[in-house]
Amino acid sequence: MSRRRARRAGRRRLSTVSLLIAAPIGAAAIGMAAMASSPEEFTQLEDGPARELTVGRCMVCHSLEYIPGNAPAMNRAGWQKTIQKMRDRFGAPITDAEAQRILDYLDARYSGKR
Fold first, then answer.
1. Are 109 and 102 in contact (CB under 8 A)?
2. What is the pLDDT of residue 37?
């Protein structure tokens, strides 16, 4: 291999290594910036009984944006299935009593499908 080709190959390897190192660092920085600002800055849930409970339990795993985003297609039965799925499949830390309060809140404020 000529010197010229060897230098090009070396530069390509260096670029690939740099990218492999920089990508996770950049992703981590973006994630930390997102965590630094309060998620509530982006989505505010409507006031009501069990609002704080709902925010606290749902934000353990995901953004609050899922709630108003899914609301047009949801009714009480849909929310009930969703809460149960979060508990059963994803291990959401929600007691039976809390699940009932969250369901009442979501049904009253975020059920678009009647």
1. no
2. 47
